[in-house]
Automatic annotation (TrEMBL):
The keyword Transmembrane helix applies. Keywords: Membrane, Transmembrane, Transmembrane helix. InterPro entries: UPF0478. The chain crosses the membrane at residues 6-27. This is DUF948 domain-containing protein. It comes from the Bacteria.
Length: 135
């Protein structure tokens, strides 16, 4: 055997070893891809079930919201009515306050004037009569 033949034989053996290593790698890669494909199939079926359950849950929630919606509308209407009642009570309070001030003013000035003036006039006549009797 010559040196060239030995070199060719070594190259051939190296090539065979490379092919064997690549073959083993490809076999393992194929098995891994098969396992990954099965896992993805299982995950996709589980995701479909979750989505179906989510759709059922969403439909149920939608029905319950439709049931509760009138109650929320009633609460909103009640809040508006309470707000309007509050405004009316405030206006009434302001009106009563103004009226009370007017009545108080009347009682201070008008009642004193109405009752005080005749009383003062009566007192003046009484003094005048008393002075006339003493003379």
């Amino acid at each position: 055997m010559s040196g060239g033949q030995i070199a060719g034989l070594i190259a051939a053996l190296a090539f065979v070893a490379l092919v064997v290593v690549i073959s083993i790698f490809l076999v393992r890669l194929t098995k891994s891809l098969g396992i990954i494909t099965n896992d993805i199939d299982q995950i996709s079926h589980e995701v479909e079930e979750v989505l179906a359950n989510a759709n059922v849950l969403l439909a149920d929630v939608d029905e319950k919201v439709k049931t509760v919606d009138p109650a929320f509308q009633a609460v909103a209407d009640l809040g508006l009515s309470v707000s309007e009642l509050n405004g009316a009570a405030k206006n009434l309070t302001n009106h009563v306050g103004k009226t009370t001030r007017n009545v108080r003013g009347f009682s201070r000035l008008g009642l004193v004037t109405m009752l005080g003036k005749p009383a003062w006039n009566s007192f003046k006549r009484h003094r005048a009569n008393k002075k006339n009797k003493t003379k």
